[in-house]
Amino acid sequence: MAIHSVNTDDYTRQLQQKVERLREAYGDYTDLDPEVFPSPPSHYRLRAEFKIWQEQGRAHYAMYRQGEYKKPFIIEEFTVGAGLINRLMPLVLEAVNTSEVLRKRLFSAEFLTTLGGDALVTLIYHKKLDEDWESAARALQEKLGFPVLGRSRKQKVVLERDYVTERLQIGDKTYQYKQVEGSFTQPNGEICRAMIGWAKDVCKESRGDLLELYCGNGNFTIPLSEHFDKVLATEISKVSVNSAQENIRANGVNNLDIVRLSSEEFTQAIDKVRPFRRLRDIDLERYDFSTVLVDPPRAGLDADTCAMVARFPRILYISCNPETQLENLAELSKTHRVERFAIFDQFPYTDHTESGLLLVRK
C-alpha cells in the first residue's frame, strides 16, 4: 500500500485552510494578513526514515501508523520524498535483496539528501557489523555514488563520511552547510530557503548586535550575520555546535561567536545568576543587542527565557508549533507588537505549520 502518495491537486485548498485557521488563532494579537510561503506540492522532503519489513527472505520499505506497530504498510512510492531519495530507494533495496549480508537483521534505512544534490544512506541493524558487511556496503556505496553508513547497538561504521553538504541559494548568495547524520536539519529544503530569505528581509535594515538561541548548525545565524555588527549564538547540542563552527569557517563569517549553552543557562548567564566556563572568552558587556532570534523546540520558550527575550527591542520568533508560540505571545504582547507575520508550510498534507513573527517593542 502506497501510504505516501499524495493528492497534489488538493494542496492549495489544504494550505488555505491552514492559513485561515492560523489567521483566526493569531487574531487577538494582529490583524496583519500573513505572508504565506507554500511548499512544493510533491518531492519536498529531504530526509526519510523507513522501517524494513522482512518477509519470505525479502526486505521491503515500510511504515507504521501510530498504535498499529504489528501492521506494516509497505511503501511502493514516496511522492513526498525528494527526487534523489526516490532515485536511491530502489537501488538500495535491490542491493539489500541480492546480498544476504546486507539484508540479514536489517531493520531500518534512512536517507539524508540536500537541495544541492548530496546524499547519505544509513542502514541500521540488529547485529554486529563485521568485515563482510563492510565489504558489501562498500560495493553498494560505489554503485550509489554516495556514502553509506552502518549502525547497530554501540556501533557506527563510517565508510567515507557521516554528513552531507548543503548549498542554499538565498538571493544572489550561496551558503554552505555541513549537516551531520542524526542531527537536526530542516526537512523541507525549499521552505528552509524561504524562512532564511524572510528572516534576512526582516533584518535587512538592522542595527547593533544579534543574539540567537537554539541556533543549530547555523542555518539562520550565518546568513543573518551580514545584517549585524556582531552575533552571539547558543546551542546545546555538541554535534550541532561543532557543525556550526565548521559552517562559520566555510562561509567566511568573522563576526559570529557560538557557545554551547541551553537557553535556560544563557538566561542565568546574562542575569549574572552564575558564571559559565563556556563563556570565559565571551564578554557579554561588549554586546549591544538590538534583536534576539529564537527558534525553539515544540515546547516553546520556558517562562524565564520568555521574560529574558522580552527585554530586547526586536524579537524574531520562528516556531514549529504555533500553539506554544501563541502561549508565549500572550506574555510577549504585553511589551511588544506584531510587525511581521509569516506562515511557512513546512509539512504539507498535515496539520503542522511553521510560523514566523517579528515583534517590536511598543
UniProtKB/TrEMBL annotation:
Q: PROSITE patterns attached here?
A: SAM_MT_RNA_M5U, TRMA_1, TRMA_2
On the tree of life, the source organism's domain of life is Bacteria
Q: GO molecular function terms here?
A: rRNA binding; tRNA (uracil(54)-C5)-methyltransferase activity, S-adenosyl methionine-dependent; tRNA binding
Question: Which Pfam families does its entry note?
Answer: tRNA_U5-meth_tr
- Stated EC number for the protein is 2.1.1.35
According to its UniProt record, which residues of this chain constitute the active site? Answer: 320, 354
Concerning InterPro entries, the annotation shows: MeTrfase_TrmA_AS, MeTrfase_TrmA_CS, SAM-dependent_MTases_sf, TrmA_MeTrfase, U5_MeTrfase_fam
Question: Gene3D superfamilies from the entry?
Answer: 2.40.50.1070, Vaccinia Virus protein VP39 (3.40.50.150)
Q: Name one GO biological process term.
A: tRNA methylation
Residues reported in the UniProt entry to bind S-adenosyl-L-methionine: 186, 214, 219, 235, 295
**Keyword Transferase included in the entry's annotation:** yes
Task of the protein: Dual-specificity methyltransferase that catalyzes the formation of 5-methyluridine at position 54 (m5U54) in all tRNAs, and that of position 341 (m5U341) in tmRNA (transfer-mRNA).
Concerning PANTHER family, the annotation shows: TRNA/TMRNA (URACIL-C(5))-METHYLTRANSFERASE, TRNA_TMRNA (URACIL-C(5))-METHYLTRANSFERASE
Return the protein name.
tRNA/tmRNA (uracil-C(5))-methyltransferase
